[in-house]
Structures are given as structure tokens and as C-alpha cells.
Write a structure and sequence with these properties.
This protein has 19 helices and no strands. By secondary structure, the chain is mainly α.
Length: 433
Amino acid sequence: MPRGTPAARPRAWVLVLAAVFAVLQLANVSGRATPDTKNYLSYAVSLRGADKREAAAVAVDYACASRASMARRNHSVDVVRFRGPSPADRVYRECRAEQWRQVSARLRAGQTGGHTAPFLSERFMRIFEVRPGYPMFLVPFLTVFGVTWGMWAASVTAAAAGGALVFLILRTLRLPVPLALTGQALYYVLPCGTTAMRPMTEGLLLALTLTAVWGCALALHGRPRTGVALLGGALAALFAVKHSQALFLGVCLAGAGAALAVRRRWRGRPPQRAVLAVAALGCCAAAGTLLLARLLHYPSEYDSLQDLLTDHYALPDRPHPWPDLLRLEVRFWVEWLRRGLTEPLFLALLAAGAWGALRRRAFGVFLLGAAATGVLTQAAHPDITVWGGRLIVLAWLLPVVGVPLLLDAVLRGRAGGARIPGPAQAEQRLLTG
């Protein structure tokens, strides 16, 4: 299609927004590493053929350079010490000494299995061994751009793709281009964009979950085969990146589809085939995840719970972990709600997103299910200190997609109740049930 045509301009604006986001991220090329980043990076380096010591060296250098960068920036704005010398070199040396002391001891003790370098106990590192998807995603970026820029480029790619997927979802729902671009921009400026830029699995989890949501939208809007295929591919990829997300998403989509089917039956109408197809695929994904995880001897729910309650197995296993978890859950959500009410932006946007989403009933219920996976992930790890809410970040997909839907409904109402004319209007009535 020639340049400048109406169909080409929306794609151009999507690329412009993604490019602006990427340019803004140049402000922080280093300093993004989290405690788990070195585990994924060492896995990726080992996939390129490096031995354990070489993989550990690359990961330690990257993690310690990130820590030193943060120390340098914090020192520059320290109201008491900013006139003194930067602590970056000292922080870097101390970090390397600390990390190598742990790694060398474990290598000498024979902890050389798997792909990840032995930064912690073999039991803990097993958690990362069963997440090959993100390290595999990193490999081409590390090969082309090197470690520092490769990690940055991988994060930018995953984050930018997430925003573009929001645009595609909203256009599939027939929203005007400006509102679809609004959703893409919301993805970048809300915590989705910030979290996706961290060199961890969340960027891919967000993008793949949005791919699944797009599959739901396509299935409900006249392209069931394409939508179901896209949804199935996203669920399979999620298993490789983080199998718990594949489980949670499968359960939530199955539950959402069941709720829609029961509602239709209650009203004396047969369930929509697309809804049943999505629900069935969600059931298969949940059951398949559980079965395959058992066959591959992945860490169990019990192992995950002990990891949470023993500070990554640094303490003895709890003899009664499930009652401890229930008590912790109650206290966690009370404190989470207290903090949420004192800074209610997240809760307000969740409410607005749910309001907008449920105006597209069938799709809205599936979107609620996808966003609920963030709540399930947080509930599985009720730790108030974990990196600024990254565990619940998938819940932000509700306002990212739902707020533009709410704005569309408001604008249509102000336009005198105008609706999509002709066959599209009939299809919309059918799909919203």
C-alpha cells in the first residue's frame, strides 16, 4: 500500500509511539537489574556455549555494574555526601567479591548442573532452570548487541511489543485509532511499561498475555480459528517463560468462559461457540500445564511455598506451611488494601477499566480473567517488599485496555447514542450477549 494512505497512517503512529518510548528508555540503559536478573542472564549465556564460570562472570559483571550505576546516581543527589567521591567503584568491587565468594564455593562443592550459575542453592536455582523461554529470548540480543545493550534492547522490544498488542486488541474491538493509540500510550506510561523494561520475565509475560487477549478478541469478532490459534500459541509460550502464568491464565479463561456460558443458558440462549472454544482451550492449558510440570519434575507448589516462607531456603523448611500462608495472606491483603486506599490511583483505574471492559460483555469478562492472573500471582507470593508491585503488574492490563473502552462508550453517548451501523452493529450485539 502506498505511503500516506489512511491504512498506513495508524501503523506509522504505532511505530512512532514505540520509538518515543524506546528513546525515553535511553535515560536508563544500566541500573535496571534485579536480584533475579543474573540468574536469567547466566542461563542465556550458557545457551550460547559458555561454561559455568564464564556464564557467572558475565552475569556478575552485569549485575554489579548495575548496582554501581545506581550507587553513583544516588550519591549524586545525596544532600549530605554529594560533594564527596562517588562510591561506584567501591560498590562494584564489593559486589563482585560477594558474588564470587558464593559462586566459587558452590562450584567447588560440585554444584555445576543445569544452565544457571550457582548463585544460590541448587534447590532455589531449580526455579529458574524451568523457565527457558526468557533466556532463549535474550540470546539473539546478546549475540548482536553485547550484554549491556543486548539486555536493554531485549527489554525495549518486549515492552514496545506489549503496547503494540494493546493497539491491535482495541482496533479488533473496532475502537477509533486515537483511542487505540491511547491504550498503547497507557501501557507505556503506567507500571506495565516500567516493569516490562526490567530485565526479567515480566515483559514477556505481559506481551504473551496480551497476545492471548488479542486471540480472545479475534475469536469473538468473527475470526475464531485465528483467535484460537493465537491463544493456544500464547499459552504454550507462557509455559516456557513461566509455567505458573500459563496455569493461572488457563484457569481464569476457563472460568470466564464458563461464567459466560452459564449466563447465556440462564437467559435461555445457547452459549457462543467462540466462548466455548476459548473456555475449552483454557481448560486444556490448565490441565496440560499441571500434567507436564509433574512429568518434567518441575518444582511443586509446596516447593514454591517453602521458598517464600524460608527466605529462598536459607532457613529450615516450615513444618506447617499452608496455615502459615493463610495467616500471611490475610495480613498481606489487609496491608495492601490500606496502602491502596491511601494512594487510590490503582484501585480507581481498576474500577474504571472494569467498567469499560464490561460494556463489551464477552470480551470484557475474558479481559477481567486475564487481569486476575496478576492478583493470583501476587496471592501466591504475599510479600509486600517484592520490587514495587511487579507481581501484580498483570492486573494493570485491565485499565490499559478497559479505560479506552470506557472513553469510547462516553464519546458515543455524547454523540447521541450513535452505534456501529449495519452488519457490524448486529455482530456487536451478538458478541456482547
